[in-house]
Structures are given as C-alpha cells and as structure tokens.
Amino acid sequence: MSLDPALRAHALAAKGFMPEDEGDALYDAAVAAGRAVPGLPFLEVGSYCGRSTVWLGGAAREAGTVLFAVDHHRGSEENQAGWEHHDTTVVDPRIGKMDTLPFFRATIHDAGLEDVVFAVVGLSPRVAANLRTPLAFLFIDGGHGEEPARLDYEGWTPLVAVGGTLAIHDVFPDPADGGRPPYEQIFVPALESGRFRLVSATGSLRVLQRVD
Ligand code: SAH
Ligand code: MG
C-alpha cells in the first residue's frame, strides 16, 4: 500500500523540502506504526507548507488515526531572509515575518485531509511540555539548529509509545552532506539511550522503533 495518487499530487505540488522517495518511506513507516500501536495519534514537528504532512495525513487515514501537525509557521533559522532555504513568497508583508500557515491550510484543504490533520500552531518545546498523549508515530523535522533539535529530542521522544516509531529528517552522519544537529542531537542520543533501534534509512530519513 502506498500513498493515494491524488494525495501524492497534492504533496508534490506543495512547497517544501520532502523528496518523493523519503515521503514514501515516511508513509510506509507511519502506516506500519499505526498498525503496530493501534489507537494512538501521529505527530509531526515542522510542517512548513504541508508537504510531508500530506504523506503522513494519508498514512494516518489509512491507519485509522489522526495527525497533529506542530509548527509556529514563522520558519526555522535556515528559512529566514539571507539563508539558503528562504522563499520570499511566504513572508507576510504586514509584519515582515514568515507565515506558512496559509500555505499549509491550502495544502491540507486541497488534499481533503482536514478531518485527519490538526494544526497546532506554536513553539515546539512549549507545545511538547503541555501535551501528554502517547504517540504511535513521531516525525521530527523542525528547527535544525543545535538548541531546537535538542529540545525536540527531549520534549517529544518520551511520548513515543513502546512499539511506536520515531522518524527523523535531515540526518547527515557526514558533515559534508549537511548540518549535523538532527544527527548529533536527535539520532545519536535516541540510539544511545537504548530506547530506540534503527529500522531503516532512506536518503536523510531515519526510522527508529521504540523498544523500551
Ligand atoms: N516537513 C516540511 C519541512 C519543515 S521545515 C516539509 O516536508 O516540507 C521546518 C519547519 O519547522 C518550519 O516550518 C519552521 O517554522 C518549523 N520550526 C522550526 N523551529 C520551530 C519551533 N521551535 N517550534 C515550532 N516550529 C518550528
Ligand atoms: Mg527536512
């Protein structure tokens, strides 16, 4: 089972940073997690304009669950003006700050996923500190600086249910391939904690299962 073709077209039409093969791997991992740990929601940290969210929302629907999509929608450091991943069309001219929420809402609306995907707009560590629900599937693709990555690891990974899945994006073991915080602050600590084991790797996506 892979992502419905109509949903795939919406995912690929959305602005964002999720390559198709990694989106497909994300989808497969999430559907499997939803079956392994039934009845628990999925959660994504870092939705941007909803590109990865469509793969995960499709997986949530397939697994009979829902997806919380957490993002302050003001962009990561690396999305701001002057940085490599900046897109001037996502700046709100009224306040001169990024606002990806309208793009996210359009993507989720057009994909027909509003009954499955719930946006949570806020600072990731603050949201994490105030949510208690165990998760079948957690996808971390938020801020890639050292501090945001560390806070996402600390705040969110305890919520993954035993048997559930942690997926991490932009994991680059070789610094020549990209920034290291997702590797150093999330991937390595997760494995070293003994709570997670590595299940698969696709591009910069790493899928881990919670074992303890
Ligand atoms: N998953 C997306 C890309 C996410 S880009 C895709 O597939 O295209 C990273 C996102 O993380 C940005 O939208 C940014 O606003 C969000 N983000 C970064 N730091 C955050 C924080 N501390 N709290 C909430 N969201 C954050
Ligand atoms: Mg990413």
Could you explain how this protein is built, in words?
With 212 residues, this protein is α/β, with parallel strands linked by helices. It is 36% helix and 22% strand. The chain has 7 helices and 9 strands. The strands form 2 sheets. A 7-stranded mixed β-sheet has the order 5-2-1-6-7-9-8, with helices on both faces. α1 runs antiparallel to α3. The protein starts with a helix and ends with a strand. The model has no long low-confidence stretch (mean pLDDT 97). Residues 16-18, 46-48, 51-52, 71-76, 79, 100, 123-124, 141-143, 148 line the site of S-adenosyl-L-homocysteine.
Give a topology summary.
Layout: H1 5-13, H2 20-36, E1 42-45, H3 51-63, E2 67-71, E3 91-92, E4 97-98, H4 101-110, E5 117-121, H5 124-128, E6 135-140, H6 146-156, E7 160-168, H7 181-192, E8 196-202, E9 205-210
Parallel strand pairs: 1-2, 1-6, 2-5, 6-7
Antiparallel strand pairs: 3-4, 7-9, 8-9
